[in-house]
Amino acid sequence: MISQTSEFWKNRNVFVTGGTGFLGSWLVKDLVQKGASVVCLVRDQVPSSFLNRSGMMEQVVAVSGDIGDISLMLRIISEYEIDTVFHLAAQSQVGVAYNNPAETFEVNIRGTWNLLEACRAQSTVRCVVVASSDKAYGQSDVLPYNEELPLAGRYPYDVSKSCADLLSVSYYQTYQLPVCITRCANLFGGGDINFKRIIPGTIRSVLMNERPIIRSDGKFIRDYLYVKDAVDAYLFLSEKMEDIQIGGESFNISSGNIFSVLEITEKILKLMGRSDLPPEILNTAKAEIPEQSLSAEKIETMLGWKPKFPVDKALNETIRWYEDYT
User: Fold this and answer.
1) What is the pLDDT of residue 149?
2) Structural fold of domain 13-188+225-254+293-307
3) Choosing from 157, 172, 224, 322, which is the catalytic residue?
4) Helix (H) and strand (E) counts for the chain?
5) Which of 196, 260, 289, 309 lies at 20 to 30 Å from 244 by C-alpha?
Protein backbone atom coordinates (compact mmCIF):
# COMPACT_ATOMS: atom_id res chain seq x y z
CA MET A 1 0.00 0.00 0.00
CA ILE A 2 1.10 3.60 -0.66
CA SER A 3 1.56 5.88 2.32
CA GLN A 4 3.20 9.28 2.79
CA THR A 5 4.98 8.02 5.90
CA SER A 6 4.76 4.88 7.95
CA GLU A 7 3.36 7.04 10.78
CA PHE A 8 0.56 8.75 8.85
CA TRP A 9 -2.31 6.62 10.18
CA LYS A 10 -0.89 5.85 13.61
CA ASN A 11 -3.44 6.79 16.31
CA ARG A 12 -5.55 8.72 13.78
CA ASN A 13 -9.24 8.59 14.67
CA VAL A 14 -11.11 7.16 11.69
CA PHE A 15 -14.82 6.52 11.27
CA VAL A 16 -15.89 3.96 8.64
CA THR A 17 -19.54 3.51 7.74
CA GLY A 18 -20.20 0.20 6.01
CA GLY A 19 -17.12 -1.25 7.67
CA THR A 20 -18.44 -4.81 7.64
CA GLY A 21 -19.14 -4.69 3.90
CA PHE A 22 -16.87 -6.03 1.19
CA LEU A 23 -14.73 -2.94 0.57
CA GLY A 24 -15.16 -1.70 4.12
CA SER A 25 -13.73 -4.89 5.61
CA TRP A 26 -10.54 -4.63 3.57
CA LEU A 27 -10.23 -0.91 4.29
CA VAL A 28 -10.69 -1.38 8.03
CA LYS A 29 -8.16 -4.23 8.04
CA ASP A 30 -5.55 -2.01 6.41
CA LEU A 31 -6.29 0.95 8.69
CA VAL A 32 -5.94 -1.21 11.81
CA GLN A 33 -2.66 -2.67 10.54
CA LYS A 34 -1.38 0.87 9.98
CA GLY A 35 -2.15 1.81 13.57
CA ALA A 36 -5.33 3.85 13.15
CA SER A 37 -8.00 4.00 15.86
CA VAL A 38 -11.03 2.83 13.90
CA VAL A 39 -14.71 3.23 14.73
CA CYS A 40 -17.14 1.20 12.60
CA LEU A 41 -20.87 1.71 12.25
CA VAL A 42 -22.47 -1.74 12.27
CA ARG A 43 -26.13 -2.12 11.35
CA ASP A 44 -26.20 -5.93 11.22
CA GLN A 45 -23.76 -8.43 12.66
CA VAL A 46 -22.55 -10.61 9.78
CA PRO A 47 -20.45 -13.49 11.19
CA SER A 48 -19.34 -14.54 7.70
CA SER A 49 -18.10 -11.07 6.74
CA PHE A 50 -14.42 -10.73 5.99
CA LEU A 51 -14.01 -8.26 8.87
CA ASN A 52 -15.24 -10.86 11.35
CA ARG A 53 -13.36 -13.75 9.75
CA SER A 54 -10.11 -11.78 9.71
CA GLY A 55 -10.34 -11.11 13.45
CA MET A 56 -10.20 -7.36 12.88
CA MET A 57 -13.62 -6.74 14.43
CA GLU A 58 -12.03 -7.29 17.84
CA GLN A 59 -9.60 -4.44 17.17
CA VAL A 60 -12.10 -1.71 16.33
CA VAL A 61 -14.84 0.16 18.18
CA ALA A 62 -18.06 -1.26 16.72
CA VAL A 63 -21.07 0.98 17.23
CA SER A 64 -24.44 -0.63 16.53
CA GLY A 65 -26.86 1.57 14.65
CA ASP A 66 -28.11 2.90 11.37
CA ILE A 67 -26.83 5.60 9.03
CA GLY A 68 -30.32 7.09 9.14
CA ASP A 69 -29.86 8.09 12.79
CA ILE A 70 -28.28 11.54 12.63
CA SER A 71 -28.09 11.82 16.44
CA LEU A 72 -25.93 8.71 16.46
CA MET A 73 -23.69 10.11 13.69
CA LEU A 74 -23.20 13.30 15.70
CA ARG A 75 -22.40 11.34 18.86
CA ILE A 76 -19.84 9.10 17.16
CA ILE A 77 -17.96 11.93 15.50
CA SER A 78 -17.97 14.06 18.63
CA GLU A 79 -17.31 11.38 21.24
CA TYR A 80 -14.47 9.71 19.34
CA GLU A 81 -13.02 13.00 18.03
CA ILE A 82 -13.09 11.72 14.48
CA ASP A 83 -10.52 13.13 12.08
CA THR A 84 -11.13 11.09 8.93
CA VAL A 85 -14.38 9.62 7.62
CA PHE A 86 -14.86 6.96 4.96
CA HIS A 87 -18.53 6.79 4.02
CA LEU A 88 -19.15 3.38 2.46
CA ALA A 89 -22.52 2.43 3.98
CA ALA A 90 -25.10 1.90 1.25
CA GLN A 91 -27.67 -0.41 -0.22
CA SER A 92 -25.30 -1.63 -2.92
CA GLN A 93 -27.21 -4.27 -4.86
CA VAL A 94 -28.78 -3.22 -8.15
CA GLY A 95 -31.41 -5.96 -8.00
CA VAL A 96 -32.49 -5.01 -4.48
CA ALA A 97 -32.71 -1.37 -5.54
CA TYR A 98 -34.96 -2.32 -8.44
CA ASN A 99 -37.33 -4.22 -6.14
CA ASN A 100 -37.20 -1.78 -3.23
CA PRO A 101 -36.35 1.73 -4.45
CA ALA A 102 -37.72 3.55 -1.39
CA GLU A 103 -35.33 1.77 0.98
CA THR A 104 -32.45 2.37 -1.41
CA PHE A 105 -33.18 6.10 -1.55
CA GLU A 106 -33.55 6.23 2.22
CA VAL A 107 -30.19 4.59 2.88
CA ASN A 108 -28.12 5.97 0.01
CA ILE A 109 -29.46 9.54 -0.09
CA ARG A 110 -30.74 10.37 3.39
CA GLY A 111 -27.89 8.36 4.91
CA THR A 112 -25.37 10.44 2.99
CA TRP A 113 -26.77 13.81 4.01
CA ASN A 114 -27.03 12.65 7.63
CA LEU A 115 -23.37 11.73 7.61
CA LEU A 116 -22.31 14.96 5.87
CA GLU A 117 -24.40 17.08 8.23
CA ALA A 118 -22.83 15.38 11.24
CA CYS A 119 -19.35 16.01 9.80
CA ARG A 120 -20.20 19.67 9.17
CA ALA A 121 -21.19 20.10 12.80
CA GLN A 122 -17.84 18.86 14.17
CA SER A 123 -14.64 20.86 13.75
CA THR A 124 -12.42 17.81 14.30
CA VAL A 125 -13.26 16.36 10.86
CA ARG A 126 -10.49 17.12 8.36
CA CYS A 127 -11.21 14.58 5.62
CA VAL A 128 -14.35 12.89 4.31
CA VAL A 129 -14.24 10.38 1.46
CA VAL A 130 -17.65 9.45 0.06
CA ALA A 131 -18.07 6.29 -1.99
CA SER A 132 -20.11 6.99 -5.09
CA SER A 133 -20.08 4.65 -8.09
CA ASP A 134 -19.55 4.47 -11.82
CA LYS A 135 -23.34 3.95 -11.92
CA ALA A 136 -23.77 7.63 -10.97
CA TYR A 137 -23.00 8.58 -14.58
CA GLY A 138 -25.96 6.58 -15.86
CA GLN A 139 -26.04 5.40 -19.44
CA SER A 140 -23.77 7.41 -21.71
CA ASP A 141 -22.72 7.40 -25.34
CA VAL A 142 -19.34 8.72 -24.19
CA LEU A 143 -17.03 5.99 -22.88
CA PRO A 144 -14.95 5.67 -20.88
CA TYR A 145 -16.64 7.94 -18.35
CA ASN A 146 -14.56 10.91 -17.25
CA GLU A 147 -15.25 13.21 -14.31
CA GLU A 148 -16.49 16.04 -16.53
CA LEU A 149 -19.53 14.07 -17.65
CA PRO A 150 -22.88 14.93 -16.02
CA LEU A 151 -24.36 12.64 -13.41
CA ALA A 152 -27.41 11.13 -15.08
CA GLY A 153 -28.59 8.04 -13.23
CA ARG A 154 -31.91 6.64 -14.44
CA TYR A 155 -32.56 3.47 -12.46
CA PRO A 156 -33.06 3.48 -8.66
CA TYR A 157 -29.54 2.45 -7.63
CA ASP A 158 -27.92 4.75 -10.19
CA VAL A 159 -30.09 7.72 -9.17
CA SER A 160 -29.30 7.16 -5.49
CA LYS A 161 -25.58 7.37 -6.25
CA SER A 162 -25.98 10.45 -8.48
CA CYS A 163 -27.79 12.17 -5.61
CA ALA A 164 -25.24 11.16 -2.97
CA ASP A 165 -22.50 12.46 -5.24
CA LEU A 166 -24.22 15.84 -5.72
CA LEU A 167 -24.92 16.17 -2.00
CA SER A 168 -21.22 15.75 -1.28
CA VAL A 169 -20.26 18.49 -3.72
CA SER A 170 -22.96 20.73 -2.24
CA TYR A 171 -21.51 20.38 1.26
CA TYR A 172 -18.09 21.33 -0.05
CA GLN A 173 -19.26 24.27 -2.14
CA THR A 174 -21.61 25.63 0.52
CA TYR A 175 -19.85 24.81 3.80
CA GLN A 176 -16.28 24.02 2.66
CA LEU A 177 -16.59 20.56 4.18
CA PRO A 178 -13.35 18.76 3.17
CA VAL A 179 -14.96 16.00 1.13
CA CYS A 180 -13.86 14.02 -1.93
CA ILE A 181 -15.87 11.52 -3.96
CA THR A 182 -14.71 8.20 -5.37
CA ARG A 183 -16.38 6.50 -8.32
CA CYS A 184 -15.05 2.96 -8.46
CA ALA A 185 -15.39 0.36 -11.16
CA ASN A 186 -17.00 -3.00 -10.27
CA LEU A 187 -15.07 -4.32 -7.27
CA PHE A 188 -13.94 -7.91 -6.91
CA GLY A 189 -11.72 -9.90 -4.59
CA GLY A 190 -11.77 -12.27 -1.67
CA GLY A 191 -14.25 -11.51 1.06
CA ASP A 192 -17.19 -10.69 -1.20
CA ILE A 193 -19.92 -13.00 0.06
CA ASN A 194 -22.60 -11.62 -2.23
CA PHE A 195 -22.64 -14.61 -4.54
CA LYS A 196 -25.12 -12.97 -6.89
CA ARG A 197 -22.19 -10.97 -8.22
CA ILE A 198 -20.59 -12.55 -11.24
CA ILE A 199 -17.04 -13.12 -9.97
CA PRO A 200 -17.70 -14.70 -6.54
CA GLY A 201 -20.74 -16.47 -7.97
CA THR A 202 -18.72 -18.02 -10.78
CA ILE A 203 -15.91 -19.12 -8.45
CA ARG A 204 -18.34 -20.70 -6.01
CA SER A 205 -20.17 -22.51 -8.82
CA VAL A 206 -16.90 -24.01 -10.06
CA LEU A 207 -15.90 -25.06 -6.55
CA MET A 208 -19.30 -26.79 -6.28
CA ASN A 209 -18.78 -28.41 -9.69
CA GLU A 210 -21.74 -26.50 -11.13
CA ARG A 211 -22.24 -24.34 -14.20
CA PRO A 212 -21.98 -20.62 -13.35
CA ILE A 213 -25.08 -18.46 -13.75
CA ILE A 214 -25.18 -15.26 -15.82
CA ARG A 215 -28.31 -13.21 -15.07
CA SER A 216 -27.94 -10.95 -18.13
CA ASP A 217 -27.41 -11.94 -21.75
CA GLY A 218 -23.66 -12.02 -21.08
CA LYS A 219 -22.97 -9.01 -23.31
CA PHE A 220 -22.99 -6.30 -20.64
CA ILE A 221 -19.61 -4.56 -20.50
CA ARG A 222 -18.09 -3.77 -17.12
CA ASP A 223 -14.87 -2.33 -15.72
CA TYR A 224 -13.42 -4.54 -12.95
CA LEU A 225 -11.25 -3.27 -10.07
CA TYR A 226 -9.43 -5.43 -7.52
CA VAL A 227 -10.43 -4.57 -3.96
CA LYS A 228 -6.81 -4.19 -2.82
CA ASP A 229 -6.28 -1.53 -5.48
CA ALA A 230 -9.47 0.22 -4.34
CA VAL A 231 -8.27 0.30 -0.72
CA ASP A 232 -4.92 1.63 -1.85
CA ALA A 233 -6.67 4.43 -3.77
CA TYR A 234 -8.90 5.36 -0.82
CA LEU A 235 -5.98 5.67 1.57
CA PHE A 236 -3.86 7.48 -0.99
CA LEU A 237 -6.63 9.98 -1.71
CA SER A 238 -7.28 10.76 1.94
CA GLU A 239 -3.56 11.24 2.56
CA LYS A 240 -3.32 13.64 -0.38
CA MET A 241 -6.15 15.72 1.11
CA GLU A 242 -3.71 16.65 3.88
CA ASP A 243 -1.31 18.23 1.37
CA ILE A 244 -3.27 19.75 -1.50
CA GLN A 245 -6.66 21.36 -1.99
CA ILE A 246 -8.82 18.74 -3.64
CA GLY A 247 -12.01 19.25 -1.64
CA GLY A 248 -15.13 18.85 -3.76
CA GLU A 249 -13.28 16.82 -6.38
CA SER A 250 -14.47 13.50 -7.75
CA PHE A 251 -12.10 10.76 -8.86
CA ASN A 252 -12.72 7.70 -10.99
CA ILE A 253 -10.86 4.65 -9.72
CA SER A 254 -10.22 1.98 -12.32
CA SER A 255 -7.54 -0.40 -13.47
CA GLY A 256 -8.82 -0.59 -17.05
CA ASN A 257 -9.87 -4.25 -16.86
CA ILE A 258 -12.86 -4.09 -19.20
CA PHE A 259 -14.72 -7.29 -20.07
CA SER A 260 -18.15 -8.47 -21.01
CA VAL A 261 -19.83 -10.56 -18.34
CA LEU A 262 -19.34 -13.63 -20.51
CA GLU A 263 -15.65 -12.82 -21.03
CA ILE A 264 -14.89 -12.43 -17.31
CA THR A 265 -16.77 -15.66 -16.60
CA GLU A 266 -14.80 -17.55 -19.23
CA LYS A 267 -11.53 -16.08 -17.91
CA ILE A 268 -12.29 -17.41 -14.43
CA LEU A 269 -13.23 -20.81 -15.83
CA LYS A 270 -9.93 -20.93 -17.71
CA LEU A 271 -7.88 -19.89 -14.65
CA MET A 272 -9.61 -22.60 -12.62
CA GLY A 273 -9.13 -25.20 -15.35
CA ARG A 274 -12.86 -25.78 -15.75
CA SER A 275 -13.74 -24.71 -19.27
CA ASP A 276 -15.93 -27.83 -19.29
CA LEU A 277 -18.53 -25.89 -17.24
CA PRO A 278 -20.15 -23.53 -19.77
CA PRO A 279 -22.14 -20.73 -18.10
CA GLU A 280 -25.93 -20.81 -18.03
CA ILE A 281 -27.23 -17.54 -19.49
CA LEU A 282 -30.60 -16.55 -17.98
CA ASN A 283 -31.05 -13.16 -19.70
CA THR A 284 -33.32 -11.94 -16.87
CA ALA A 285 -31.42 -8.84 -15.64
CA LYS A 286 -33.50 -5.65 -15.43
CA ALA A 287 -32.72 -1.94 -15.01
CA GLU A 288 -29.01 -2.26 -15.67
CA ILE A 289 -26.71 -0.17 -17.86
CA PRO A 290 -25.47 -2.18 -20.87
CA GLU A 291 -21.93 -0.80 -21.08
CA GLN A 292 -19.67 0.95 -18.58
CA SER A 293 -16.00 1.82 -18.32
CA LEU A 294 -14.04 4.47 -16.47
CA SER A 295 -11.10 6.70 -17.29
CA ALA A 296 -8.75 6.99 -14.30
CA GLU A 297 -6.60 9.62 -16.01
CA LYS A 298 -7.52 12.34 -13.50
CA ILE A 299 -6.34 10.55 -10.36
CA GLU A 300 -3.21 9.41 -12.18
CA THR A 301 -2.22 12.80 -13.62
CA MET A 302 -3.38 15.02 -10.74
CA LEU A 303 -2.32 12.83 -7.81
CA GLY A 304 -0.05 10.13 -9.20
CA TRP A 305 -2.06 7.06 -8.23
CA LYS A 306 -1.92 3.88 -10.32
CA PRO A 307 -3.28 0.37 -9.69
CA LYS A 308 -0.76 -2.35 -8.90
CA PHE A 309 -2.44 -5.67 -9.66
CA PRO A 310 -2.64 -7.23 -13.15
CA VAL A 311 -6.06 -8.80 -13.64
CA ASP A 312 -4.87 -12.42 -13.79
CA LYS A 313 -2.89 -12.05 -10.56
CA ALA A 314 -5.87 -10.42 -8.87
CA LEU A 315 -8.24 -13.14 -10.05
CA ASN A 316 -5.87 -15.91 -8.96
CA GLU A 317 -5.59 -14.37 -5.49
CA THR A 318 -9.38 -14.12 -5.38
CA ILE A 319 -9.82 -17.75 -6.41
CA ARG A 320 -7.39 -18.88 -3.71
CA TRP A 321 -9.32 -16.89 -1.09
CA TYR A 322 -12.57 -18.71 -1.94
CA GLU A 323 -10.82 -22.07 -2.03
CA ASP A 324 -9.75 -21.42 1.56
CA TYR A 325 -13.15 -19.98 2.48
CA THR A 326 -14.99 -23.15 1.49
Assistant:
1) 95
2) Rossmann fold (3.40.50)
3) 157
4) 12, 12
5) 309
